[in-house]
Specification:
This protein has one domain. Helix content is about 15%, strand content about 45%. Strands 1-2-3-4-5-6-7-10 form an 8-stranded antiparallel barrel. The two termini are about 35 Å apart.
């Protein structure tokens, strides 16, 4: 299942890039092309979150040429995969082998160096809720790059460093360091397992400029 899903995401990503064809050198080239320069809204789907079990959609609003805000919501699909880059700083195991379905919320603040078709720095936050099992909260600092093509398709890639907090609702479901729960007595549960950890989140999003 994981192999098929990963293959599907790669096919979708590279197909969209190939379909986009001609890349512009900057958003200023849109000044006389269908109102691109006046566009304020970008719709996106997060491919990496699908790998993690979160079908997440978001909308980004350009407050100005330099600043934007993005908000999203998703459906947790009943499976869980940790971000693969987290293994570089955290090898703790998890007990979310068969999670229930749930939902997620996200928000991102962005600063673009030279318009939305260029490098940016961002502060993304996300919360995931699996009723009766676990709640996950994370916030990070993430630089990235966004490409916008003539046909209004876009690709948004970022990588960051942040912190994640977990709150088990059933005292047995954990996203990381589940082994600590097994090595301590019931009386000491409130302190274990570790509730916070460093993360290296990566986001690959496909979208459309409205």
């Amino acid at each position: 299942m994981k192999t098929l899903l990963t293959a599907f995401l790669y096919i979708l990503l590279f197909s969209s890039v190939a379909f986009a064809q001609k890349k512009t050198s900057g958003i200023d080239q849109y000044l006389d092309d269908g109102g691109f320069s006046n566009a304020k809204l970008l719709g996106k789907v997060n491919l990496t979150s699908i790998y993690q079990g979160d079908l997440h959609l978001s909308m980004e609003y350009l407050v100005s040429k330099e600043f934007s805000v993005e908000a999203g919501a998703g459906v947790l699909l009943g499976y869980y995969n940790d971000d693969p880059l987290n293994n570089f700083i955290d090898t703790g195991d998890d007990s979310l082998k068969n999670p229930k379905m749930g939902f997620s919320l996200s928000a991102v603040l962005k600063y673009y160096k030279d318009g939305m078709d260029f490098f940016y720095i961002s502060i993304p936050g996300r919360a995931r809720f699996i009723p009766g099992q676990i709640q996950l909260y994370e916030v990070s600092f993430a630089p990235g790059k966004q490409w916008v093509w003539d046909n209004r398709l876009l690709l948004d890639v970022s990588i960051g460093l942040g912190i994640q907090h977990q709150k088990s609702m059933d005292s047995k479901s954990y996203a990381f360091h589940a082994e600590e729960r097994m090595s301590h007595s019931e009386s000491s549960y409130e302190s274990f397992p570790t509730k916070n950890r460093l993360i290296i989140p990566i986001a690959i999003k496909l979208g459309y400029l409205f």
